[in-house]
């Protein structure tokens, strides 16, 4: 089984991952983050190479804020329910500070990623910037969520 892959810089990523990072960066332009001023973008690629992007969408009622990852996954599943998700890249920056900040999916997004991974029966790779400015590719949602509660628990 594939493990976590680490890359010293963006140039070392495979071209597909690089492209997804680029699209995720673009997606931060559509983030609506007036409260946190933390702009998150995500881009995922489906089995037929369709790319779906999304960004965080905040609300004055703070608990209703939606993360970029879930916005993107829900958009993909709503529009392309039968296509498997191969990989998702996530990036973030603060307004007026365009350099990317290390950001991995929050716990809620890991749970949602896992649901789609189990549903499609195929791992979803996750590309993020690590704390040491390295790029990380996690092989699956399950690898980010040990002892997960999953559909199997409801059987
Ligand atoms: N956020 C994401 O979109 N994805 C993450 O993985 C972490 C947090 C958003 C939620 C909120 O709009 C802002 O970032 C600050 O938490």
Summarize the structure in words.
The protein is of the alpha+beta class and 155 residues long. The protein is built from three helices and six strands. Strands 1-6-5-4-2-3 form a six-stranded mixed β-sheet. A hairpin with a 5-residue loop joins strand 5 (125-129) and strand 6. The longest helix has 14 residues, at 107-120. It is globular and about 45 Å long. The two termini are 26 Å apart. 32% of the residues are buried. Tetrahydrodeoxyuridine binds at residues 33, 36, 38, 40, 56, 58, 65, 67-69, 103, 105-106, 109.
Structural topology:
Layout: E1 5-7, H1 15-27, E2 38-46, E3 51-55, H2 68-79, E4 85-94, H3 107-120, E5 125-129, E6 135-138
Parallel strand pairs: 4-5
Antiparallel strand pairs: 1-6, 2-3, 2-4, 5-6
Bound molecules: tetrahydrodeoxyuridine.
């Amino acid at each position: 089984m594939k493990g976590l892959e680490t890359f010293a810089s963006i140039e070392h990523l495979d071209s597909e991952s690089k492209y997804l990072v680029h699209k995720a960066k673009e997606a931060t332009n559509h983030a609506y983050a007036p409260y946190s001023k933390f702009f998150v973008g995500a881009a995922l690629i489906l089995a037929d190479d369709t790319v779906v992007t999304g960004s965080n969408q905040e609300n004055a009622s703070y608990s209703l804020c939606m993360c970029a990852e879930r916005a993107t996954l829900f958009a993909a599943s709503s529009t392309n329910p039968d296509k498997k998700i191969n990989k998702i890249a996530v990036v973030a920056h603060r307004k007026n500070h365009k350099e990317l900040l290390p950001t991995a999916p929050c716990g809620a997004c890991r749970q949602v990623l896992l649901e789609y991974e189990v549903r499609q029966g195929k791992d979803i790779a996750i590309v993020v910037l690590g704390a040491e400015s390295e790029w990380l590719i996690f092989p699956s949602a399950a690898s980010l969520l040990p002892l997960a509660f999953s559909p199997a628990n409801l059987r």
